[in-house]
Amino acid sequence: MTLALATDIPTTPQLLAPLHKQLGLHDDLALEMFWHMLLARRLDERMWILHRQHEVAFHISGIGHEATQVAAAYALKRGHDFIFPYYRDLCLTLALGLTPRAMMLAMYGKAGEPMSGARQMPAHYSARALNIVSISSPVATQIPQASGMALAIKYQNADQVVMTCFGEGSTAEGDFHEGLNWAGIFKLPVIFLCQNNQYAISSPVEREMPVKNVADRASAYGMPGVIFDGNDFLEAYRALTQAVARARRGEGPTLLEAKMYRLSPHSSDDDDRTYRSRQEVEYWKQRDPLLLARKYCMENGLLDDARLEEFEQRARQIVDDANEFARNAPYPPPEEALNGVWGALPKI
Ligand SMILES: Cc1ncc(C[n+]2csc(CCOP(=O)(O)OP(=O)(O)O)c2C)c(N)n1
Ligand SMILES: [Mg+2]
């Protein structure tokens, strides 16, 4: 009898099914999640390039947030549940069904932009048919709105849930505390998803709050606070599906805190070299959620080099198409500027 070397003995994780299967995701769904992360990244990168080429005026990026966002999209019932997103939710809203053409039309401020008729800034994602509710630019305003929607759902005995997203800096706003307080008192079916990317523009997290974790605040509002690795799309999916299930069972709200890192500057108007070192950014690039998801898919036989190349080419075609479409679209006629603002133009 030959004794197996210690290194030949399968470890416990190897004996178990791959994590995506443990979480109830079949291979195609896990790969589809990776695909949305990849497409979101390539679209986001193109937006940066367009800004640097002076083609568009402004970009605010979701690079580094893709794992948590794709997990959020897959944890919800699309077109049924309600989402109150924030400006970094490119991957979330894309995975929920907002099109790259719509996003590019918003970048260029062109006619036909379906979210606001090109009146809002880019990244103010919304889609009535997908129950993605329009955001306002003041941070955290979406939080009490989400609680209000959840109260309406509870009142009507519907089985929908509500999710809202925000950064950790926004948890210093009164709106955050009021929104969570209400949700806690009335045990509302709402998930508060904090995407803690460690900065609020140039302020590091230690200057934003006196506690270590946003999740620590949950107990003040009578709800669980759950921390997870926001760079890992499957750990994110685990946390999100649990919170969604809890809300759907009528057990009330959850405050989720996804720990991650903002890999890009705050926006196209920000130079992050003035407040954080390149070494720090390089360190976090090792935890880039897209790279981690790619590694997982490769190691678990969901993806190979040929399929990855196919995905890259498809993403490039979709991004090129959206870009050309928006570049060639006309601007809205000036006389439409006040449509949807005034019931009837005031007589002057
Ligand atoms: C009420 C309000 N105050 C300030 C701003 C300016 N502002 C826009 S984004 C931002 C940072 C928010 O940081 P965080 O909530 O952590 O989100 P992140 O941008 O890091 O994703 C600030 C201060 C704003 N839009 N609204
Ligand atoms: Mg932040």
Describe the overall structure:
Helix 3 (27-52) crosses helix 4, helix 6 (100-108) crosses helix 12 and helix 7 (142-155) runs parallel beside helix 8 (174-185). The protein has helices at residues 12-15, 19-22, 27-52, 66-75, 90-96, 100-108, 142-155, 174-185, 233-248, 278-285, 289-299, 305-328, and strands at residues 82-84, 162-167, 190-196, 199-200, 203-204, 225-229, 254-259. A five-stranded parallel beta sheet has the order 1-2-3-7-6, sandwiched between helices. It has 348 residues and is of the alpha/beta class. It is built from twelve helices and seven strands. Helix content is 42%, strand content 9%. Helix 9 links the parallel strand 6 (225-229) and strand 7 (254-259). The structure holds thiamine diphosphate and magnesium ion. Thiamine diphosphate is lined by residues 88, 137-139, 166-170, 197, 199-201, 262, 266.
What key phrases describe this protein's structure?
7 strands, disordered N terminus, 348 residues, binds magnesium ion, globular
Quick structural gist:
The protein is α/β, with parallel strands linked by helices and 348 residues long. It is built from twelve helices and seven strands.
Topology:
Blueprint: H1 12-15, H2 19-22, H3 27-52, H4 66-75, E1 82-84, H5 90-96, H6 100-108, H7 142-155, E2 162-167, H8 174-185, E3 190-196, E4 199-200, E5 203-204, E6 225-229, H9 233-248, E7 254-259, H10 278-285, H11 289-299, H12 305-328
Parallel strand pairs: 1-2, 2-3, 3-7, 6-7
Antiparallel strand pairs: 4-5
The site of thiamine diphosphate has 15 residues, from strand 2 and strand 4.
